[in-house]
Amino acid sequence: MKNLLIASTSTVHGESYLDYLLPALRLHFEKCKTILFIPYARPGGISHQEYTDYVAKSFKKIDKEIKGLHEFDNPIEAIKNAEGIFTGGGNTFLLVSQLYSHTIMTTLTEVLKSGTPYLGTSAGSNICGLSMQNTNDMPIVYPPSFKTLGVIPFNINAHYLDPDPSSKHMGETRETRINEFHEFNSIPVLGLREGSWLEVRNYKTTLRGALSARLFKKGEKPKELATGTDLTDLK
Amino acid sequence: MKNLLIASTSTVHGESYLDYLLPALRLHFEKCKTILFIPYARPGGISHQEYTDYVAKSFKKIDKEIKGLHEFDNPIEAIKNAEGIFTGGGNTFLLVSQLYSHTIMTTLTEVLKSGTPYLGTSAGSNICGLSMQNTNDMPIVYPPSFKTLGVIPFNINAHYLDPDPSSKHMGETRETRINEFHEFNSIPVLGLREGSWLEVRNYKTTLRGALSARLFKKGEKPKELATGTDLTDLK
């Protein structure tokens, strides 16, 4: 029994933070008065408190209170007691390092598997997969492992970007990078475009949002999946 | 005493592999008949032999023979005996993992510090810095450490990209990522645009190529450095 909303991005171009998700979040966190926020990914290096304040403003629009995990002396207890949990984006290497150093990876997996409503955006979505190996982030700190929550049986590439045919840049495309991953790993990778999310409700996983997603499996051609696709059997 | 050519990219848009560098490479490897090629980064997942054959074609244009490191039973001896060394691009996580698993990181540092002519492109340039933490690559394998050769006292961001003001993508810009790095690290980072390289000759380091480079230092505003800038004192 799970209750997860795993989004590619917190923000779509031209809108305010989380705005495009608010109608879904109102339902998703229907039974929560207060949501526990995990601010460890620190986008742009802002502090835990700055990040928490920023997030609280958006959640106020749907009458939810936000408490930052950094405010608790015992983060394990805080996670166990949370009515709902949100992990925001930023740097995935930093987020994963912090989850390990606060020894909350296992507890977070347990509460998510037993139904605590969860929202992840960007780095907070990457950690839902089996490993963080399809992040786009820079390795600014060295985590003790790349293994993550594994509350879905595949990996996420957030902010998925199609190749730009007019580009003169010689760096790898996202597709090339994911193909390199599949030379060494067999975990399927779902490229979630900005504006898409996964809804994991009980035992059913569905692609939501306006766009299609791109699925990469080792040794197979990538596939476009229409919004609404049932991904329950993907592994 | 060092003799390094540290390039942002192997290839500039619209040209063949290494073409823009061949005039510099002819001089750089003047005294070498054979160059040892380190193919470990495997761009796009190609095999060591495929990669070596591809590189050999370009070096034939300046009458140099290429031998792949994978062809030797004892890679440590091969590096010690090399007349010149080239490490090609691909995935930096894979390259660094392989350098550690073949226990050649120390030997490679030693020969580079004692003057063996070296060419690095992309991932092969990232490893010249103190750490690989400013790579743009995906963490497709878990290396035992992010520490690299340290033959220059700062880090390289290869394929440096300026922010695109018309972009609607909400992922981090390169500058944002490097600033996040500086929240946790004090190593200067040189953003090398495609077509730029560093020339390290004896104790002098100079920016070469047609373009300026962008220097990031912790707590300072980024600076544009014109080609020809002396970077000997950067650390």
UniProtKB/TrEMBL annotation, chains A, B:
Gene3D superfamilies: 3.40.50.880. InterPro entries: Class_I_gatase-like, Peptidase_S51. CDD domains: GAT1_Peptidase_E. Pfam families: Peptidase_S51. Keywords: Hydrolase, Protease, Serine protease. Belongs to the peptidase S51 family. This is Dipeptidase E. It comes from Flavobacterium faecale.
